[in-house]
Amino acid sequence: MSLGASILIFFVLLFLGVPIAICLAATGLIWLSATPAIPSLIMATKIYGQTDSFAMMAIPFFMMAGQIMEQTGITGKFIDFAKSLVGHIRGGVAHTAMVAGVIMAGVSGSGNADTAAIGSLMIPALKKDGYDEGFAVSVIASAGSLGPIIPPSVMMIVFANAAGYSVGKVFMGGVIPGVLMAFGFCMLSYRYAKKHNIGGGKFGGWMNVFKVFFKTVGALIMPAIIIVGIVTGICTATEAGVLACVYGLLYGFATKSLTLKSIMRSLTEACVASIGPMMIITYSSIFSYMLTRMNVSTMIGNFCAQYIHGEIAFMLFIIVVCTIAGCFIDGLATMLMLLPVLTPVVTAMGIDFQHFALVYVMALLTCQITPPVGNLIYVAAGIQKTPVNKVMKSILPFVVVMEAVILLSVFVPQIVTWLPHVIYGA
């Protein structure tokens, strides 16, 4: 079967509304059936090989940590602390959501989990403060989008596992861009608040900040365990996820905020949240194998050699490809489909792999808030049944901020390479 026919089958299934994981599996299965020279057993081998990894166990553990965080009320404590810091600035409610998003990003690594947790508490507060419901949803979706950029990150774990690269280096590369994006989002919120005459709360003073901090310190230890553990090399990403879950359970029992029923609910929700990414990860392996067998990497390499010269031009090419693909296909699926094809090209061109890794992952993550696929838009809008069409216009400035930070990272590589080099060496 030709490459064109395989891609056509994939997109036909996709536009018929078939789930992305099934599109990947069905396309691979049809290609295998039409290629007798390749044993059909290869499908089972690839699927098993893709998930037979200790690093991949981090995904359900981080999902579980996020669920425990929600069940124990840790989310509310993060929001209280964020409010004490920035709630007095004009547009303080929106700033509070953003700062809470940055803190919560250090726990679950999932944009969906962070968006749902922050949104359930903050969207009513934003609307009460005078924000249009479309802008309120955009603020929450953008805050949630920081989850997979600031470590830990499910997307980065999958990337590092598939590329055979250091999880810690990819994690640390996301810190500075994530903070820059959060700052940009806050600037948009400030501008909106000023335009619509929305003020801020009263600053309780630095003593109040310290009081709230000491009340929240038990909750803040949870993200600290993950970040410090991974950065210092004391534990792997998977082990950090386990430690976060154990600490969350101990914290829940100590504060009497966890019951057996809420633990079972957390387990159920974590399993359900993990199924989608894991299905995409497993079934994308056969699709990627198909592209590799068809020498797509050679085709792209020849194209780059003829038309694209230099690291910056290649990075811009990656951003364009990922942005277009992300408008139609889930970011995780796109990453796993294209990574085996692009890696040989990156190596052949002598591009800094750390630089490529972060630009590639961040370009795909913008698709979380990019219509029409933007899953975080639908998660945030569904919290209070906001019509999605009311969000589309409001979300665009936030997308521009994300793209601007990615472009800045292209032209100033140190944004994504400096911190990993300081911590782990060149």
Q: What features would you highlight for this structure?
A:
single chain, 426 residues, mainly alpha, 21 helices, 0% strand, globular
Number of domains: 1
Q: Radius of gyration from the CA trace?
A: 22 Å
Overall 3D form? globular
Strand count, sense and barrel status of the largest sheet are: none
Q: Using DSSP, what is the number of strands?
A: 0
**What portion of the residues fall into strands of 2 or more residues?**
under 5%
**Proportion in helices:** over 70%
CA-CA gap between termini: 44 Å
Low-confidence stretches: none
How many separate helices?
Answer: 21
Could you spell the SSE succession in H and E letters?
HHHHHHHHHHHHHHHHHHHHH
* SS content category: mainly alpha
The mean pLDDT is: 86
Description:
This protein is mainly alpha-helical and 426 residues long. It has one domain (3-424). Helices cover 77% and strands 0% of the residues. The chain is built from 21 helices and no strands. The protein has helices at 3-15, 20-33, 41-51, 58-71, 74-86, 92-104, 111-128, 133-145, 154-163, 167-173, 175-195, 206-232, 237-254, 260-293, 296-307, 311-326, 331-349, 353-365, 375-383, 392-411, 414-424. Helix 16 (311-326) packs antiparallel against helix 17 (331-349) and helix 17 packs antiparallel against helix 18. The longest helix has 34 residues, at 260-293. The chain is globular, with a radius of gyration of 22 Å. The mean pLDDT is 86.
